[in-house]
Amino acid sequence: MLLASGSDDATIRIWDVASCQPLYTLRSNAQPVHSVSWNPDGTAIVTCSRDHVALIWDIASQRVLHELCGHTDVISWVSWSPDGTLVATASYDQTVRLWDVRDGHVIHTLEHPRLVKALAWSPDSRQLVTSCIDHLVRLWDVQQARVVQNLADIKQAIPHLAWSPDGQHIAGGGFGAVHIWEVLSGKLQTMLYGHTNLIVWLAWNPNGTYLASRGDTTIRIWDVYSNQATMVLQGTSDSMHHLVLSRDASLIATSHVNELVRVWDSLHGTVRHVLVGHIGSIIGLSFSPNGTTLATAGFDQIIQIWDMLSGQQIQHLNSPTVMTGIDLSPDGNQLVTCGEQTVRIWDLATATNILTIRHTRGLGPVYFTPDGTTLVTGSDDGHVRFWDAQTGALLRALPTPGPYHNMNITGAIGLTDIQQAALRELGAVENR
Hints:
Layout: E1 2-6, E2 11-16, E3 21-27, E4 33-38, E5 44-49, E6 53-58, E7 63-69, E8 75-80, E9 86-91, E10 95-100, E11 106-111, E12 116-121, E13 127-132, E14 137-141, E15 146-151, E16 160-163, E17 169-173, E18 175-182, E19 188-204, E20 210-215, E21 218-223, E22 228-234, E23 240-245, E24 251-256, E25 260-265, E26 270-276, E27 282-287, E28 293-298, E29 302-307, E30 313-318, E31 325-328, E32 334-339, E33 342-347, E34 352-358, E35 363-368, E36 374-379, E37 383-388, E38 394-399, H1 417-425
Antiparallel strand pairs: 1-2, 2-3, 4-5, 5-6, 6-7, 8-9, 9-10, 10-11, 12-13, 13-14, 14-15, 16-17, 17-18, 18-19, 19-20, 20-21, 21-22, 23-24, 24-25, 25-26, 27-28, 28-29, 29-30, 31-32, 32-33, 33-34, 35-36, 36-37, 37-38
């Protein structure tokens, strides 16, 4: 189990979470490190600092794979696209740059008139939304590197953005209000009032019916159909990592930077349980379909199953790898986890790993289908795969279009053979 941290002492440290000991120390050009982000399969990190350069590091060899050079001022933060093929960097030089992580070259530079405050990727990685201190929120076509529209009715800088799971809405935090825009028209659909300070964090539930916002010292859960806050959760001054709702929305689970999980009663807006047991960050939460149990997965490579009536741990599973995804089966009898190119199904009655599926590339999320017969996995090779949940047999692999799907690069000038090959891998076409 590994954790990456960046510091003002110009180092990045890779930690073993179980022993709390540093494994490696990476030195970043004698400049304070502003932001650190893992790639989806956990084999590399990208960092940025005051020297105007972002670095992609290989964890196993502890060496820099690519230096992302081109910004002319401080890089404030970095973010990987959901498909893991691109890195976006925002800088004080009033640009957002998109980089191909395979060879480290810049693909596009998105110019802004002033400082960029926030950005968010669309679920399919084809679009990017950015907010700027000129009070505009811009929607960009990633392939064409152009603004397709400006979202309407904004009177302040937006410090946080979140794209809905279905890709149809964008939520933005502001001072005392959440903005929700319709992506197709760019029109402001509604504003949600209730917070008394800056809203610094937003998250949608998986089907996009509820939106959680964090500002002041409260979390508010909004029904996006009625535009009403269905609950207000108090006392959340510590940083939050994840939030999930039970199927009937009666319970909410949140994970926090201090290794705690809180379970909230959504009807009364009170904390029902505080779950303590993990060492290090918690990376996955999943309610059983009937809401009677909660599964938690941590960077400590431990899966814990909790009883929601008593708040007590009822099972403890040891994963041999760091996990990047977790889901409970529809009948609540099995758990699926993924991480480090492996999918595992666990039988909860016997607490044993009953099926292991090997993958050739890094894995992202994993889910059971509603009938429990099939697993669905996402991978950084650009494919969605369907697996038989009993035998582990691969049923189908669906390629997802790359960010440059059908872009014609025939006769393009200034591209090396390597750059052309990388663009073809990302969906570009060339007529020879």
